[in-house]
Write a structure and sequence with these properties.
Number of domains: 4
Number of strands: 18
Strand content: 5-15%
CATH architecture of the largest domain: 3-Layer(aba) Sandwich
CATH topology of the largest domain: Rossmann fold
Shape: extended
Helix content: 40-55%
Radius of gyration: 32 Å
Number of helices: 19
Distance between the termini: 57 Å
CATH superfamily of the largest domain: P-loop containing nucleotide triphosphate hydrolases
Length: 452
């Protein structure tokens, strides 16, 4: 039920008005002066405030600013016995929804309240959605606690509040756009547009039109003026993914934008000025591309003012379980995510995979497994065949071979057990310390019957 704050020092009039408003389905809270009203504003939220201009301890026109400061989404309607234009103008400037005269406009109050409440509720819904977006795209939403990932996040958090151009490098599927959005969200530009463009998705001519726009008649099919994405991102951030795929002449035009903040639309003779932060990304080795003559060195130095390397998933094995649970939350439709179980070694097999497609590949694997899942259990049989084929390393022998206390194998078993105890069961870290492959470690664990 929408709540209205009614502020008026005339008790009889206030009570009558409160009764009329409550009959319309609103909850009404009353205050006889500005001081009381201010206290009530600190205690609860209101959709609208109906306030007399003349108050015992102040002026309603001035009180509007206080109300909007405490509750920006609340709409304020001022009531006055004697309307005058200067007060009305100042009230609107201070943020009032409307300014009406008592007596003459009584029949307008209820319809006006309905409109004010509707506007306030819409503003609250928009604010809630914006808050959800901020949470969704924040650094806290990036899943994983591995050192390589945390190091990359720490760098991104430091550069985010600046306007420095950033180059994100790393293999395909490592989450470069997720990082770009988080950087934008943590920047001073977060209330403005974030625009993403995959440079590999367009031909040279179409990419120029997407980036900079065109004028009507600039080429066949240009039937109307079009704003480019740089213009759409004005005051905000543009993310240029796969920048290494950009043609040489378009690289020169991008360099001009970075250096001067100006560009020419296709078919236009006057430059367009923009203020845009650029975040670029690539999976290519741009230094090698420069040597081969495929990428401009001056553009490279301009976009790589601050460089962040994103780690591949195979270097973040410890994060796989958290990512799997996240994707289960995203894709599980048959049952509640909390009811889903894992068959023994299901997660172990995921940790053994090479993940050439990185997080994107893992996402696809889990979505597929959930479709095939039976009895609320994710099984090894639900994984792609190439992963299933590695399950043999987990097949336990009927009895682990007895080792002589003097054998080399006994010493190896003891050493592996010590390292696993040291890493508190972290097999990835243990394999690194032992300088062996993770697959080899799993095989030896099962061969020796080591408790891990």
């Amino acid at each position: 039920m929408p709540t209205i704050l009614l502020i008026d020092d005339e008790e009889k009039l206030r009570s009558l008005l409160a009764r009329l408003i409550s009959l319309e389905g609103f909850e009404v809270v009353q205050a006889g002066d500005g001081k009381t009203a201010t206290r009530k504003l600190d205690l609860q939220e209101f959709e609208a405030v109906l306030c007399d201009v003349k108050l015992p301890d102040g002026n309603g026109v001035e009180l509007v600013s206080v109300i909007k400061q405490k509750q920006p989404q609340a709409e304020v309607i001022l009531l006055t016995a004697f309307g005058n234009i200067p007060d009305g103008v100042q009230a609107i400037k201070n943020g009032a929804f409307d300014y009406i005269v008592k007596g003459d406009d009584n029949n307008k109050i209820i319809p006006l309240l309905h409109r004010a409440v509707e506007k306030a509720e819409l503003a609250r819904r928009v604010a809630k959605l914006e808050q959800q977006l901020e949470t969704r795209y924040s650094f806290d939403a990036i899943i994983g606690q591995s050192k390589s990932l945390r190091d990359a996040i720490a760098l991104a958090e430091k550069v985010a509040p600046t306007d420095t151009t950033i180059l994100l490098t790393g293999e395909t599927g490592t989450g470069k756009e997720v990082f770009a959005r988080a950087i934008h969200q943590a920047s001073l530009r977060h209330h403005k547009n974030f625009v993403a463009l995959n440079c590999a998705a367009f031909s040279k001519d179409l990419l120029e039109s997407e980036m900079f726009g065109h004028k009507t008649g600039a080429f066949t099919g240009a039937v109307r003026n079009k704003k480019g994405l740089f213009e759409e991102a004005h005051q905000g951030t543009i993310f240029l993914d796969e920048i290494g795929e950009m043609s040489a002449d378009l690289q020169a035009k991008l360099l001009r934008v970075l250096e001067t903040g100006e560009f020419y639309k296709i078919g236009e003779t006057q430059p367009t000025k923009v203020n845009v932060r650029v975040i670029a990304a690539t999976h290519r080795n741009l230094e090698h591309d420069i040597e081969m003559g495929h990428f401009r060195d001056d553009l490279f130095y301009r976009i790589s003012a601050f460089r962040i390397q994103l780690p591949p998933l195979r270097d973040r094995i410890a994060d796989i379980e958290a990512l799997v649970r996240f994707f289960i939350q995203m894709f599980a439709t048959k049952v509640k995510p909390s009811d889903i179980r894992f068959e023994p070694h299901f997660l172990d097999l995921l940790k053994l995979h090479d993940w050439k497609g990185n997080i994107r590949e893992l996402k696809n694997v889990i979505e597929r497994a959930l479709i095939l899942m039976e009895n609320n259990t994710l099984r090894i049989d639900d994984l792609p065949i190439e992963m299933q084929q590695r399950a043999s390393i987990f097949e336990a022998t009927p009895a682990h071979k007895q080792l002589s206390g003097f054998s080399l194998s006994a010493a190896e078993k003891l050493h592996i057990q010590k390292v696993l105890n040291y890493t508190q069961g972290n097999k990835t870290e243990a394999a690194r310390l032992l300088d062996i492959g993770l697959t080899t470690l799993y095989r030896k664990i099962h061969e020796y019957g080591i408790e891990s």
